[in-house]
Design brief:
The protein has seven helices and 13 strands. By secondary structure, the protein is an alpha/beta fold. It has a ten-stranded mixed sheet with strand order 6-5-4-7-8-9-10-11-12-13. A hairpin with a 5-residue loop joins strand 11 and strand 12.
Length: about 290
């Protein structure tokens, strides 16, 4: 019996490693396939992304190769020729519909003398739309420029030709907006006298000189403009408005009066008095203190 037990024990001991080997091989087989499946899934995802990227690249290249076949230009252009706008837009068309640098085109358009604002948009599938707004000049600036409605200076080689009906302002750099305000105030103060302001100049010291539409020049100075124009209004109504063509200049820089320079009468000029420095007669009007 004891011998039989020992044999049975040996058989069980010999069978146990075989069963353990089978379980280990099975475990190894069960862990390998999930790992292989995971790598296969990753490869499929990468391949799919590459295919999508390749398709997108081909689509982008196809779209980029689309030429711009139409350019639409809109806006009330009175002083800017359409040919000038087309000349700016044309170089941007070489890169195709999607490669056109719209920001650069807009900047070049707004650099044209009479263009205040420009917008450039793509219109699918093959067109560009350009909308431009011209400058709105409210006054001439110096000899070759204009002021727009925001007090910004822009230059034009045709300033004298196009701005003959606009008032003329002139002053140091950076003084444009202040001059516009002064021009508007002076115009309002002169309106009751039925006088129109044609030009206003400010020198480096800040002194103002105005020119009326009838040719009379007003030397205003740099202070107490309202009080000085009040004195001018009284003298103008009482004496000067009777024969305004004779008045050449009115100097308002006096604290209690003004000085009037008259043009020489035609008879005196014919008599040669102008050559002796008598072409002007100056009268000083003194008034009570303000």
């Amino acid at each position: 019996m004891a011998e039989l037990r020992r044999k049975a024990h040996r058989r069980r001991a010999a069978a146990t490693p075989r069963r353990r080997g089978r379980r280990t091989a099975a475990a190894r087989s069960n862990g390998l396939w999930p790992r292989l499946g995971g790598w296969l899934n990753r490869l499929l995802i990468v391949a799919g992304l590459c295919a999508v990227g390749l398709a997108a690249t081909r689509a982008w290249l196809a779209l980029a190769a689309i030429p711009v076949e139409r350019v639409g230009i809109s806006g009330n252009l009175q002083r800017t020729q359409i040919a000038a706008v087309e000349e700016v837009v044309q170089p941007a068309l070489a890169g195709g519909f999607l490669n056109a640098d719209l920001g650069a085109v807009r900047g070049e358009l707004e650099a044209l003398p009479w263009i205040y604002r420009a917008t450039v948009r793509r219109r699918w599938p093959n067109a560009l739309e350009v909308a431009v707004v011209e400058q709105l000049p409210i006054a001439r600036w110096g000899e070759g420029g204009f002021l727009n409605h925001e007090g910004e200076v822009f230059e034009s080689r045709r300033a004298r030709e196009l701005g003959s009906d606009l008032p003329r302002l002139e002053g140091p750099p950076g003084s444009a907006r202040e001059l516009i305000v002064s021009f508007q105030q002076l115009g309002e103060w002169l309106q009751p006298l039925e006088l129109e302001l044609a030009a206003l100049r400010r020198d480096e010291r800040g002194h103002l000189t105005a020119e009326l539409a009838n040719g009379v020049r007003l030397v205003l100075g740099d202070r107490e403009l309202r009080a000085r124009l009040s004195r001018f209004a009284r003298v103008w109504r009482a004496e000067l408005s009777v024969d305004p063509a004779r008045v050449e200049q009115v100097d308002l820089r006096y604290s209690q009066g003004l000085a009037v320079a008259f043009r020489a009468p035609p008879a005196e000029v014919a008599g040669g008095l102008a050559q002796l420095g008598s072409a002007q007669q100056t009268t000083t009007h003194m008034t009570g203190g303000e």
